[in-house]
Amino acid sequence: MLQVNYIRENKEKVLEGLKVRNFKQPELVNEIIALDQVFRATQTQLNDFESEANTLAKQIGDLMRTGKKEEADLLKQKTTSCKENIKKLTEEISEIEPKLYNLVVQLPNLPYHLVKNGVGAEDNEVVYLHDKPAELPKNALPHWELAAKYDIIDFELGVKITGAGFPVYKGKGAKLQRALINFFLDSATEEGYKEMQVPHLVNEASGFGTGQLPDKEGQMYHATVDNLYLIPTAEVPVTNLYRDVILKEEDLPIKNTAYTPCFRREAGSYGAHVRGLNRLHQFDKVEVVQVCHPEKSYETLEQMNNYVQSLLQKLGLHYRVLRLCGGDMGFTSAMTYDMEVWSAAQERWLEVSSVSNFETYQSNRLKLRFKGATGKTQLAHTLNGSALALPRILASILENYQTENGILIPEVLQKYTGFDRID
RNA sequence: GGAGAGUUGGCAGAGCGGUCGAAUGCGGCAGUCUUGAAAACUGUUGACUGUCAUAGGUCCGGGGGUUCGAAUCCCUCACUCUCCGCCA
Question: Is the C-beta atom of A56 closer than 7 angstroms to strand B?
């Protein structure tokens, strides 16, 4: 979330940013500033009374110790009105504070200056296009048909044991999946990320820390008996490692990577576009996360962008990079690149990665700070990206590498799979 | 699942209802000594809020209560640990 102090001191910038995002309730800004003023005025009044009460209590203490009980009793009477005021003002504050918080969390992050004004996906900028569509054999099949033909992914079996959106990978399909995970983790390690294995269930506090709660509660699977949530992305546990942490400046940047399954309820999304591997309730993903110095975060974003592209290039996929416009960007992001691979058989682009700089939006909520040379603590910047999400990568490999004689395995994966084709 | 113990500053660990934001040790930082380093010695060292700067205020797991005054007493919730049982 944004910092109230920042909103107060940079009202115009905030309004401009919200405009780029096409944000529908700019009036929130004024409400926040007004309520914040009330909040701080009340706080000041309360502090004054608290100060008075503290002074009186100390005096009474002194008198009691020196045996002047009558004088002490006299002073005690004076505390009554003070206490009443404190009680009243405390109640006021406890009403105002959550109200203010609820307003502030409704504001999205402010876009970086490179982000273009826009409403939706059609306004995104294509900033890079790599290669051409693969040339496919005549009767090219979409991946779900290839999956059935070679018996490597079984959607029906998943339906039987769990439900739709939980595929079963079989034989070489399972092996290819594992190969991709290893390839992505090894690559991330070479790039300087530290591999982490984190829990796949998180508590409520972690859900709040990265902002899935309270708003997107319906998107997560909830183990109610223990009040734990299945993670929708590794971002949740990996970023929460740094909740309530004050780092040393020399610890930055922190680069972590983790492979996890991801669980998403995807309530309400059905239809042709979710066929096959396009949209699942459970899928695998390798995530990269960085915590860095505010001055370095855009440099870092470009590094991460390039890194993700290097993976796609090694896999030999036709892809493009989008810089999302204000209206299409996630709520918490300041700038996002989406990578999309071309699905030759479906003839559409599939999003396989999203790399974002959240600036201080996450770290403010997480209380993730660092202490610089000056001794002042300040919020760190956080970034993350998928590197990569497996199902659509798998889908596009199946589709793009299909031949008359089976599906070829990209060379870079062969040392992980141990075979060079699926037939 | 049963029984018990605990939760205090970066860590370890003390704390009588008032003089406690909190002893002490370690760690960190600065200095003395040294060619340099180590050791030793000296000093310093929490976060948040607030102010132009002071001042002031809040924080001893969370919430509530008793009291003029709570880290300390009471209630409640959460979490952690130990032992037993079960078990990958």
Answer: yes
A85 touches strand B (CB under 7 A): no
CA-closest candidate to residue A363, choices A377, A352, A348, A351: A377
The DSSP call for residue A418 is S
Give pLDDT tens digits for A40-53.
Answer: 999 999 999 999 99
Listed in sequence order, the residues at least 6 apart from A342 whose beta carbon sits closer than 8 Å to its beta carbon are A133, A134, A317, A318, A319, A320, A349, A350, A396, A400
Chain A window 208-227, residues with Cβ within 7 A of nucleic strand B: 227
Asked whether residue A348's C-beta has any atom of DNA/RNA strand B within 7 A, the reply is: no
Q: Which domains does chain A have, with CATH numbers?
A: 4-104 (1.10.287.40), 121-422 (3.30.930.10)
Which token pair is A162? 């769990």
List chain B nucleotides near protein: any atom < 7 Å from a Cβ. Answer: 18-19, 47-51, 55-58, 64, 68-69, 79
Q: What is the pLDDT of residue A268?
A: 62
Residue A48 CB lies within 7 Å of the nucleic strand B: yes
Q: Is the CB of A204 under 7 A from strand B?
A: no
DSSP assignment, residue A119? Answer: S
Q: Which residue is nearest to nucleotide B58 (CA to C1')?
A: A47
Q: Looking at this predicted complex, what is its ipTM?
A: 0.85
Q: Is the CB of A40 under 7 A from strand B?
A: yes
Q: What confidence score (pLDDT) does residue A270 get? A: 62
Question: What's the pLDDT tens digit per position in A202-218?
Answer: 998 899 888 888 778 88
Among the listed residues A351, A297, A257, A324, the one whose alpha carbon sits nearest the alpha carbon of residue A114: A324
CA of A226: nucleotide with nearest C1': B78
